[in-house]
Amino acid sequence: MASDSSNRGFGTHAIHAGQQPDPSTGAVMTPIYQSSTYAQSAPGEHQGYEYSRVSNPTRTALEGNLAALEGAEHGIAFASGVAGIDAIMKGLRPGDHVISTNDLYGGSFRLFTKVFEPFGINFSFVDMTDLDQIEAAITDDTAMIWAETPTNPLMRIIDIRAVCELANAHDIDVAVDNTFATPYLQQPLDLGADLVLHSATKYLGGHSDIILGAVCTSRDDWAEKLRFQVKSAGASPGPMDCFLALRGTKTLHVRMDRHCDNARALALFLDEHPKVGRVRYPGLESHPGHDIAAEQMSDFGGMIAFSLTDDRIEAAKTVLSNTDVFLLAESLGGVESLIEHPASMTHASIPPEERAKIGLTDSLIRLSVGIEDITDLRSDLEQALDRI
Ligand SMILES: *Cc1c(COP(=O)(O)O)cnc(C)c1O
């Protein structure tokens, strides 16, 4: 008899959950089941798999793994993070109202306003660090609160437990985009959320070599709706990408520790630098969300945003064009360090007036701090800042 494995530690789950040696060969690593279809012994008699749009054994292993990491009953993998968000939104009905944060992943904002608003779902974007603003936005039609914390790119911290308590009192479901924190640092379901969304493209995959998404939930009704979406709308990830995501999660805990250590060191360095304005890193005690972050996260993550004392876009461009270890690229969460300019890159789809309103200024620079040697990362930023 196998012992109960559900109470194992995070690192053990990361490496083992959802997986066992392949029953036909003993292969220790889950094979890449690169097959679209499955032989049946008689019509309708199969071993649980019929067609890979619906399910695939490599994907099943990944889904079990991600569910264990989030402490969820169900994991549902998607071809991308936004495909997971799309599937959640399709679980709502025309006329439903969603409250979200006004400093949201640009792709989520685009999907909400350009795809789902025309289909009759209504959105309010508020400053979710202020519970009163959330409460004021609630209407009889509010069906969901969509939170993201830390936010992208302003690194604001939303109090997940407080938001869930408010939502609960009004019978509203809460979804949390946990991409920045990962389940190693933050577990929204434990804090009362109904759904957790991941862009596994980022830290879960961890090596910038896949596009993949996942939703974790312990709500059977939501899991059923989401699986129905996978089957009906077909945003299923391929087995190779699921294999790579599984390889990624095996080292998630080890990578995250280094991401956090490196980011903390760089945030302190930037905070002291005369050419740097405000440093947005929840690990800094001066961060307005520091106490809540310390409460709901086990560490502060690998993402930093900062502005320059010289707020002209040219100053930011000088820094962005002169780093050597930090590569100028969108995305985040890989082992390599990346630098980017939200106003012209990841958040260009947010109108300039909206960007200005929330403080997403032209000199704002976002770092995805990788796991290279900290001395190299620090001297790379130092020489780039010296050129302003
Ligand atoms: C990247 C990202 C997404 C979208 O994920 P994809 O895998 O690119 O589709 C959603 N939310 C956040 C916070 C992200 O960083």
Automatic annotation (TrEMBL):
- What would be an example GO MF term here? cystathionine gamma-synthase activity
Note down the stretches annotated as region Disordered.
1-28
Record-linked Gene3D superfamilies: Aspartate Aminotransferase, domain 1, Type I PLP-dependent aspartate aminotransferase-like (Major domain)
- Give any Gene Ontology cellular component: cytoplasm
- PROSITE patterns reported for this sequence: CYS_MET_METAB_PP
Q: What is any one GO biological process for this UniProt entry?
A: transsulfuration
Q: Which InterPro entries match?
A: Cys/Met-Metab_PyrdxlP-dep_enz, Cys_met_metab_PP, PyrdxlP-dep_Trfase, PyrdxlP-dep_Trfase_major, PyrdxlP-dep_Trfase_small
Pfam families recorded: Cys_Met_Meta_PP
Checking CDD domains in the record gives: CGS_like
Name the needed cofactors: pyridoxal 5'-phosphate
Identify the keywords attached in UniProt to this record, alphabetized.
Pyridoxal phosphate
| Residue numbers bearing the N6-(pyridoxal phosphate)lysine modification | 202
Q: According to its UniProt record, which protein family does this protein belong to? A: Belongs to the trans-sulfuration enzymes family.
Name of the protein this chain belongs to: Cystathionine gamma-synthase
Q: List the source organism.
A: Longimonas halophila
